[in-house]
Amino acid sequence: MKNRRFQLVVGISLIxxxxxxxxxxxxxxxxxxxxxxxxxxxxxxxxxxxxxxxxIRYIHSVHxxxxxxxxxxxxxxxxxxxxxxxxxxxxxMPSNAYGEDTFEMKDEKYIITKGPNTKTLPSINLSVGQVRxxxxxxxxxxxxxLKEFVxxxxxxxxxxxxxxxxQMWKGVKMSE
Length: 176
Hints:
The chain crosses the membrane at residues 6-26. This protein is α+β, with helices and mostly antiparallel strands. The chain has 3 helices and 11 strands, in the order αββββββββββαβα.
């Protein structure tokens, strides 16, 4: 009788430990990661919840006006460009839309809305500005100044992937 009870307790304990290990180590939480381009080191991550849209906002280095790029995460973790919003069509900015994209002016801003067949991106490479650009990630109504998390002047790769709770504990979380 004692031996049978001992086996039952050991069996239940092993199942509980295995379930806990799966919960902690299985990558099942979608995040946007910010990795150093050269080393691949993960510098920070942003947990993604229900909302799949995010923006990158910055100040254009020539025009010194705000630019907003909108993106949407896809089920396969690719990134689909959705909109480009800006104030000046001069150096470095498009003056019209191409293909299936649409171009409009609203509230003194130019808006290019990407067409339905716009190719998705596996990642976005970005050099975080040192002086004026103020590259900021906007997600879920919150803004995160990238230089505070990855350092000004750092070249990063932005991509979506699944992380485990263990990986998230080890990393630098951008949101609270």
